[in-house]
Amino acid sequence: MEHNKGDLTPEPRVAVVVFLLKGRSVLLGRRRASVGNATFALPGGHLEFGESFEECAAREVKEETGLEIRNAEFLTVTNNVMLDQPKKCHYVTIFMRVIVGVDAPKEEQEPQNLEPHKCDGWDWYEWDHLPQPLFGPLEKMVKGGYDPFSS
Ligand code: 8DG
Ligand code: MG
Q1: What is the pLDDT of residues 8-64, one digit of tens each?
Q2: Which of 37, 46, 73, 136 lies at a C-alpha separation of 20 to 30 Å from 81?
Q3: Which residues are in the Nudix hydrolase domain (predicted)?
């Protein structure tokens, strides 16, 4: 199929999201967005042109929570086709990990809700008692038994 320049042809996008792990807890925020509204999700966003996954992870976490991370580690990638959303979308989602206290930030640093129009607020949730509902791509991993602590 041919498409003219300027056509609103949907295309898959690349997202980078981060498991910030502290003890047995993970940092989640409830989304305010057209995709996954009111669901609990990881900090993260779109990979920008020229960025490495690590750079994108650090930038998004800083923009959204104020936390400074380094050495984010690649965990896995999933393919997320979300056609049931108010805004249909398709993301190739890169999951990164940061262990708090090891890869920074320091344990005493607390997340701030720097984009309150996009998130209700950040909090630490025990992996064994995750809040509901989770954002689809995260829920899919949890249901599949994925464990970000042991990878
Ligand atoms: P940006 O424009 O500032 O780069 O992005 P954003 O406004 O922070 O985008 P986002 O919606 O937070 O993240 C981009 C996409 O990443 C989101 O629409 C779908 C995909 N994504 C997942 N899983 C997760 C997740 O757990 N958290 C976040 N934030 N995004 C996720 O597939
Ligand atoms: Mg985001």
Answers
A1: 788 999 999 999 999 999 999 999 999 999 999 999 999 999 999 999 999 999 999
A2: 73
A3: 11-147
Contact 41 CB / ligand 1 (< 6 Å): yes
| CATH number of the domain residue 77 falls in | 3.90.79.10
Domain ranges, residue 51:
13-103+110-116
Q: Which of 16, 17, 115 to mutate to test the pocket of ligand 1 (most atoms within 8 A of CB)?
A: 17
DSSP alpha helix (H) spans, the chain: 53-65, 136-143
Q: What are phi and psi of 57, to 5 degrees?
A: -60, -45
Amino acid identity, position 37? N
Report the DSSP pairing between strands 25-31 and 119-126.
antiparallel
Reference 65, options 124, 12, 8, 144; nearest CA is: 124
Overall domain count for the chain:
1
